[in-house]
Design brief:
It contains 8 helices and 9 strands. The protein has 202 residues and is an alpha/beta fold. The chain has one domain: Rossmann fold (3-Layer(aba) Sandwich), CATH 3.40.50.300. The longest helix is centred in the C-terminal third of the chain and has 16 residues. Bound molecules: guanosine-5'-monophosphate (5GP). The site of guanosine-5'-monophosphate (5GP) has 13 residues, from β5 and β6.
């Protein structure tokens, strides 16, 4: 059985990674969505186990000590982490997984997944970013300014990624993300002998 691919989207807050991820999951429903653990408070419309697993700091720290996280990071004062077991089981069983994470976590993605991952960094023009953050009205002005400042720092992480997608027009950005995924899946290294013989008609 061929292992699956770990597709990673990261972006400064408001650059559109969540929207692109939703579009991507709709287009490719067989891709698994990884649900992270977080110590952040649940927002009104969020559902436990669908958006996040919401846990206390003690539980999160226990999970760190137990080595339960593939990666974790402190973001805007809260902890967020990805379950190692979920990713490892999915990839082993040949499923592709989409991970939407803060760039701090990407450097922790260990050798185990290096050959199996595609890392995509998504950016948007800064004026556009501010507009989007203001219009979604989920954070105060102070929080928005913190997010914009953090976004500038996150740009430094860009060199850890394989691809850069500028999201000034959503449809164009979506096309680019789909192309990246398709090109990756067509790599011969992901095909097993049976597939190759089938395709070349031997
Ligand atoms: P929010 O609080 O707005 O849902 O998420 C804040 C940031 O945390 C977003 O950039 C989101 O992608 C990131 N994030 C969510 N889950 C994880 C995770 O498991 N690991 C890391 N490194 N970042 C995460």
């Amino acid at each position: 059985m061929n292992e699956g691919t770990l597709l990673i989207f990261s972006a400064p807050s408001g650059a559109g990674k969540t929207t692109l991820a939703k579009m991507f999951m709709e287009k490719y429903p067989n891709i698994q969505d990884s649900v992270s653990y977080t110590t952040r408070a649940r927002r009104g419309i969020e559902v436990e186990g669908r958006d996040y697993f919401f846990v206390g700091i003690d539980k999160f720290n226990e999970m760190i000590s137990a080595g339960d996280f593939l990666e974790y990071a402190t973001i805007h004062g809260n902890l967020y982490g990805t379950s190692f077991k979920f990713i490892d089981d999915s990839i082993k069983s040949g499923k592709d997984v989409l991970l939407v994470i803060d760039p701090q976590g990407v450097s922790q993605i260990t050798e185990r997944f290096k050959g199996r991952s595609i890392k995509v960094f998504i950016v948007a023009p800064v004026d556009e970013l501010r507009k989007r953050l203001l219009s979604r009205a989920e954070e105060s002005i102070d929080e928005i300014n913190i997010r914009l400042e953090n976004g500038k720092k996150e740009i430094c992480f860009m060199c850890d990624y394989d691809y850069l997608v500028v999201n000034d027009k959503l449809d164009d950005a979506f096309d680019k993300v789909k192309s990246i995924y398709m090109a990756e899946k067509l790599k011969i290294k992901y095909m097993n002998d049976d597939d190759i013989y089938k395709y070349v008609g031997v």
